[in-house]
Amino acid sequence: xxxxxxxxxxxxxxxxxxxxxxxxxxxxxxxxxxxxxxxxxxxxxxxxxxxxxxxxxxxxxxxxxxxxxxxxxxxxxxxxxxxxxxxxxxxxxxxxxxxxxxxxxxxxxxxxxxxxxxxxxxxxxxxxxxxxxxxxxxxxxxxxxxxxxxxxxxxxxxxxxxxxxxxxxxxxxxxxxxxxxxxxxxxxxxxxxxxxxxxxxxxxxxxxxxxxxxxxxxxxxxxxxxxxxxxxxxxxxxxxxxxxxxxxxxxxxxxxxxxxxxxxxxxxxxxxxxxxxxxxxxxxxxxxxxxxxxxxxxxxxxxxxxxxxxxxxxxxxxxxxxxxxxxxxxxxxxxxxxxxxxxxxxxxxxxxxxxxxxxxxxxxxxxxxxxxxxxxxxxxxxxxxxxxxxxxxxxxxxxxxxxxxxxxxxxxxxxxxxxxxxxxxxxxxxxxxxxxxxxxxxx
Amino acid sequence: xxxxxxxxxxxxxxxxxxxxxxxxxxxxxxxxxxxxxxxxxxxxxxxxxxxxxxxxxxxxxxxxxxxxxxxxxxxxxxxxxxxxxxxxxxxxxxxxxxxxxxxxxxxxxxxxxxxxxxxxxxxxxxxxxxxxxxxxxxxxxxxxxxxxxxxxxxxxxxxxxxxxxxxxxxxxxxxxxxxxxxxxxxxxxxxxxxxxxxxxxxxxxxxxxxxxxxxxxxxxxxxxxxxxxxxxxxxxxxxxxxxxxxxxxxxxxxxxxxxxxxxxxxxxxxxxxxxxxxxxxxxxxxxxxxxxxxxxxxxxxxxxxxxxxxxxxxxxxxxxxxxxxxxxxxxxxxxxxxxxxxxxxxxxxxxxxxxxxxxxxxxxxxxxxxxxxxxxxxxxxxxxxxxxxxxxxxxxxxxxxxxxxxxxxxxxxxxxxxxxxxxxxxxxxxxxxxxxxxxxxxx
Lengths: 443, 443
Description:
Chain A has helices at 23-31, 38-45, 156-160, 190-193, 207-214, 239-242, 408-415, and strands at 93-94, 106-108, 126-127, 142-146, 152-154, 166-173, 197-206, 222-227, 234-238, 247-252, 255-256, 266-268, 281-287, 302-303, 309-310, 319-324, 335-344, 350-356, 364-365, 367-368, 378-386, 391-399, 428-431, 437-440. Chain A is mainly beta and 443 residues long.
């Protein structure tokens, strides 16, 4: 990825670290006469308002800025709002050499620039197999058929009138996320190594409600989910999962599904690989065995070292990545530093995340902050003091089943390097003394 | 509001209700030979795939739609995504006669079209007093001064390097939300009666961390929060609240704050009236008493019946509203119906929400669904069977302090009708037999 696509916002004057230090260290730093920030200058020279000249080192403190002098834009210049122009580089990105056509490609979530646990709808990664279907919600139909007592077709209004509507936050990770890293460090940015994931709140109706009304026959052991896009995406799902926690969803993060996420209706398959979450959901067929569709045979199976393929590896195991620092979010200055990242597991909630700054020799338990629910993205932080030494940053997730995220070496020993799917190995970032960060692997 | 601004999406053919009914009722409805939905037709006439002709009543079931025949748009046509063109009416709206200029006005959240508990960033209501400040994040500075041991100035990077970053979901409600309803039902849509509220996840640093580094002097009992916009919004906040749960926030729902929400930094004052959540936060000054600024004297005080004003009524009491059905979201057909709405309290979490369909004579406890954390928006549902009778819909929230949302009559008996602030009275929607809904008051 060309480095000029990497945002370089943020002021880096002096030791802004000072405010985060103890008062003892704080004052001693100020006393050292090092290049100091306005904050330190203010502390060292007394009240700013009383002595504006003391703000010499920082020209942006005392003068009243233009934005405080003149009326700004009105309240409704954008009836549907947009990000600040200063955030224009925070966008989804393709890796053009990765795929042959943009209709069957992926555009990655800019994880390095995000925080918290929710992915904004406009930045949720996009994976299409036949392009984005543009569906008229009035003409949309959803069919339930196959081994059922009565075959049914629902309009979008019908779905919205079903009892038992729920709201749930779940991560959606493509089975091929980090797939390009199987054979070694390759893509220089967590947007590209781990950006095939997003985490949003879904509003929808449990799939079970539709199957109950249709009446699943005793022989019904699997369901086929089919999309209405040109790729006619189809996947086989065990009836147990279909009757457990799958959702027929029509809203994300409070508003209608986005077109690229399956508007007006998608299937939600919590904790399971992304391409089972069929977008533009057209039908659910009940059968007595899996259908062995293209996307579960020639694709989305794990080719092992001996040439055999592992099929139906539905669950996304525990995984994590440090999003900052990372190649697109280098460290800008020494002193107090907030390291942050995300962790998730398809088997439950994240119980603990450990972080290493020395390539896995020593580990510190990170601070999990914010929502921490099953099969949903968890945010972690490690606040530390960076002295400018070289770092080998890693994170290691543990879920509440006791499963521990493995190293890439451990994964390769078992599964070889033929697969591009289900790579949940530990990621390593090398932070150089100048703060620049790159994708590497440790011995 | 002109009715032509009201979205009329959604298919309303026949009794799509059937799938949500018991099998007994379901089949009897199908048997009545009423105008029936595709679902009913399918059930009444056997498998659709075997007998497509049976789908006669619904032309949209059997033919393969165009969106399944041709490639759609590529994965990155919108590097920052947008809603479907079919959702173009789901936008923030102004009430032009309400304010003199759009730079000092409000644009309301389209609550009637939203679901779940999160408000999408692009639809969060906007209230400006001097227009939207456009702040260069590199030139942004945040000052802490007044009765402190050391006055400090922070860059945006300094703020992001402070330890103790947190992620919290909180509602923000303008003190004037529902203000136009004090003297009686006036605005015909919950977007306008209750749309000065939004609920998002904030990422930021506790204000206490900044005050601790600066060192609050013993005489420091209040803080002044000042915005960098042309209105120089200023509010006085008791030191106890400043040291409790206030946040200096730089992200919302995972991404940078939106410009109209205070980019790059705003103050978060959980549970307290919206205009204390100072946007484009420029400084926090510590003092020994409130400053009696414009926005806490001539404005944002509650004028009582006897002409006296109630000041510093910071906390937003428990409140709720049914968002669907509502004037902008009328009922479209008889049968199974999902009534939904939102509830919130500045004093804690919502413990219970009751719904009445007959103007408050009888109440049913609604189903609270999704996140239910303190000082954050809660979603409730009531699934019921509508026979086409006239309804008088109300909702009544209770928070975990035991406080119960009052009627408008109860509020007026105590506070008169001179105020436009802090109206948390119970809202009534009249649903006519044709489904059209309007804003009314009972007895």
